Amino acid sequence: MKHIILSLLLLNVLALTSCSVLVKKNPSKLSKLSSNQQIAINQLGYLNKSEKIAAIPNVTASQFDVINAKTNKVVYTAQLSAAKIWTLSGNDGHKLADFSEVVTSGHYFLRVKGVADSSLFRISDDVYDSLSKAALRYYYLNRSSTPIEEKFAGIYARPMGHKDDIIGYHPSAEPRYKGKRIDSQKGWYDAGDYGKYVVNSGISTYTLLAAFEHYPDVYKKQTLNIPESEDNVPDIINEALWNLEWLITMQSDDGGVYHKLTTREWPGNEMPHEDQRLRLIIGKSTAASLNFAATLSMASRVIEPYYPNKSKQYSNAAIKAWRWALLNQTQYYEQPSDIKSGEYGDHYLKDEFAWAAAELFITTKNKNFYTIYKEINIDYVAPAWRNVSYLSLSSLLFKAKDLLSKQEYEALKIKQNDLADIYLNQHKSSPYNVAMQKSDFVWGSNSAALNKAMVLLQAAKINKNNDHKNAAHGLVDYVLGRNPTGYSFVTGFGTKTPLYPHHRISHSDNVVAPVPGMLVGGPHSGQQDNCNYLFNEPAKSYVDDWCSFSTNEVAINWNAPLVYVLGALSD
Ligand code: 9MR
């Protein structure tokens, strides 16, 4: 019952009606997941022409029906697959139902003898539209240094948190600035905490801007109802700019870039405006400088038509950061003993050097950067905050065709296709039809899924290969409900969604429903928190509880591939 009420509330929330609100959240009550007895579908629905798969509990029945919910008539009947076991989710087994042949828009459900009907789902080419907006609006709702206004945020309005105009320097950042203060406003909160971290901000901002750079028509049409929506700049760029304007403040006058801006300890479980602890600029690192160089360089070319002066400022700043990194190649971030906030430490920076070199090459057109890039000679895997090698490949394929010889360009294309093929093979050989391997069930596994989907969709676009698109769909289905937990992992989107994410704002805002459009980290076999997990299998090691920062937190670098993938699918 509570679930139905919450779903209705969420509908209101999404429509931004200001219904009077509500009661303080109760602490989470764990309930044994019963997904093994339920049909698992993509709870948002399926695009008209996409592959359509559902996972059925291991019943004896051998066929399934697709039923039109309006007419109650069976529109499609087919054989279930043989029983399969995905060991990453246990040994109960399941069967797959493939109803890709149903392409007519409408509301449907699945019926299989021996198990409850599936929940309703839609087939339509707009099934992802509202999520695509909400996933981007998450960034607005998590802005620092500004009040979040009711006319844009409805029930999620809140007073300004962290003006960040008087920030101290930790000795690890700039000893010569002891006692000085810096203005470091704007930016997004990283995750469930209120820190701002350059390394993670970089990849997140890049991914949003890449969505625009690769699919401009999708985002030129999209309005998000954010304060800048009335101007003539696409909203995704305006949103990215909020963080870029913070990032630019993190550069020291010598060109190096500070690692992060946080409090010494984690903030309390309180709203942003209630967190009055002193915030500090902490560390200066090669990783942050390179990440900054890559992101600002890329941003400079994307915003150029809209903000020419800023564009110039960003590209100069990027070059300055690159030069500093060349002179300080191993200034790794080491967490000072008095600091408890997130570390984002990384001692392997070949990929960061390569990414920055590639972006500087594309933006400045100076081929020396490409020579450096080639000399670094990196391997590519789906991106993550710690491994950004693939971002260079992606940018070069989309933006450097005219700057490279045919041979050079083709060589990059093959590398990209090879990587996409690895994920395609994982998809095809997976008993669950999803390209998720044991090693993907890390902290933030849902972003591992969506970053793989991004690689696959780029391959599909570049090589016009529909198989790659299907494999990407498999991963999107997985995140939105066709998985062994039965959750759609995005707050407010699906029939069973996280209600208690590790997100301080949602935890303390007195609104029952969490901020919508946030992707939670997802199953993580490490179980690196002290929560009560009901399952140990990697694909089921998830708990919808505030305490689970290692499976139920949200983060800007996790939502970014969600934004990208949904945009790419609507292209
Ligand atoms: O996403 C990060 C993950 O890869 C690390 O394993 C984890 C532990 O160091 O930290 C994650 O990032 C967190 C960051 O340190 C602080 N803000 C919240 C981030 C998401 O949990």
TrEMBL record:
Xref: Pfam families: CelD_N, Glyco_hydro_9
PROSITE patterns, per the entry: GH9_2, GH9_3, PROKAR_LIPOPROTEIN
Annotated protein name in UniProt: Endoglucanase
Organism: Pseudoalteromonas marina
EC numbers for this chain: 3.2.1.4
InterPro entries documented for this protein: 6-hairpin_glycosidase_sf, 6hp_glycosidase-like_sf, Cellulase_Ig-like, Glyco_hydro_9, Glyco_hydro_9_Asp/Glu_AS, Glyco_hydro_9_His_AS, Ig-like_fold, Ig_E-set
Protein family according to the UniProt entry: Belongs to the glycosyl hydrolase 9 (cellulase E) family.
Residue span, Glycoside hydrolase family domain: 128-566
PANTHER family reported for this sequence: ENDO-1,4-BETA-GLUCANASE (PTHR22298)
Domain Cellulase Ig-like: 36-115
